[in-house]
């Protein structure tokens, strides 16, 4: 005797639970700066940079090429003055040809050719410079939250921004100095290491696909 078996359908309660779980997962990803997400493969070739001074052309970068696999840490090493900062500035879209400065490059994200200076590309790449540009009278909490408020989608609520900021402060070991002013040469504030970690937090909080750290240590 054959019996026709039909798959069990979820009742309204089960469907509600599944929906709630998905919503909770989405919220968790939104408010976690360290949530697992897809990275980007970055590659570059034919990167050239020249500066003309008093009629003399100085070559800073000459046919530089390289690759950063997705979800991996890559170090660019070399002596002082060899062009490491210039290369990172070009790849992150912070430098472009202007006046006596000439730059050419072939940059690709996931094997697709892109313009590093385009807004869409710059939004995917965070850049932490050697010298921080933090407001000396702000605190680490204020700096990180301001960056998140300014650069993340408007759909982020104030509560989500607060949670995101607190998680970033905790992960970077900035909880104890979160409400101490950054300070500067004439105004005592947090330590040099705490300033650097705050600068990292200002960039990481927007959850970029790639992060460039210029002499982070």
Main features:
217 residues, alpha+beta, four-stranded antiparallel beta sheet, two-stranded parallel ribbon, 6 strands
Give a summary of the structure in a few sentences:
This protein has 217 residues and is of the alpha+beta class. 33% of the residues lie in helices and 21% in strands. A hairpin with a 2-residue loop joins strand 3 and strand 4.
Order of helices and strands: HEEHEEHEHHHE
Write down the overall geometry.
Answer: globular
Helix content: 25-40%
Q: Please give the count of helices.
A: 6
Q: pLDDT below 50 for ≥5 consecutive residues: which ranges?
A: 17-27
* Main beta sheet: 4 strands, antiparallel
State the end-to-end CA separation: 75 Å
Q: Beta-strand percentage?
A: 15-25%
**Strand arrangement, largest sheet?**
2-1-3-4
The number of distinct β-strands equals 6
Structural class: alpha+beta
- From the alpha carbons, calculate the radius of gyration and give it in angstroms: 23 Å
Name the average pLDDT: 84
Give a description of the structure.
This protein is α+β, with helices and mostly antiparallel strands and 217 residues long. 33% of the residues lie in helices and 21% in strands. It contains 6 helices and 6 strands, in the order H-E-E-H-E-E-H-E-H-H-H-E. The strands form 2 sheets. It has a 4-stranded antiparallel sheet, with helices on one face. Strands 5-6 form a two-stranded parallel ribbon. Strand 1 and strand 2 (56-68) form a beta hairpin. The N and C termini lie far apart (75 Å).
């Amino acid at each position: 005797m054959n019996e026709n078996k039909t798959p069990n359908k979820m009742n309204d309660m089960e469907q509600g639970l599944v929906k709630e779980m998905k919503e909770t997962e989405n919220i968790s990803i939104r408010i976690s700066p360290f949530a697992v997400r897809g990275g980007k493969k970055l590659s570059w070739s034919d990167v050239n940079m020249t500066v003309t001074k008093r009629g003399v052309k100085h070559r800073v970068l000459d046919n530089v090429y390289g690759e950063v696999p997705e979800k991996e840490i890559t170090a660019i090493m070399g002596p002082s003055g060899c062009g490491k900062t210039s290369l990172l500035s070009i790849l992150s879209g912070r430098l472009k040809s202007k006046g006596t400065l000439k730059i050419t490059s072939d940059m690709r994200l996931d094997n697709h050719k892109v313009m590093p200076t385009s807004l869409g590309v710059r939004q995917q790449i965070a850049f932490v410079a050697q010298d921080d540009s933090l407001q000396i009278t702000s605190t680490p909490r204020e700096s990180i939250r301001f960056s998140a408020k300014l650069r993340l989608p408007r759909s982020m609520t104030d509560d989500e921004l607060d949670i995101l900021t607190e998680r970033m402060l905790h992960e970077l070991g900035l909880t104890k100095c979160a409400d101490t002013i950054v300070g500067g040469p004439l105004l005592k504030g947090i330590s040099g290491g705490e300033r650097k970690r705050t600068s990292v937090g200002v960039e990481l909080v927007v959850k970029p696909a790639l992060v460039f750290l210029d002499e982070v240590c």
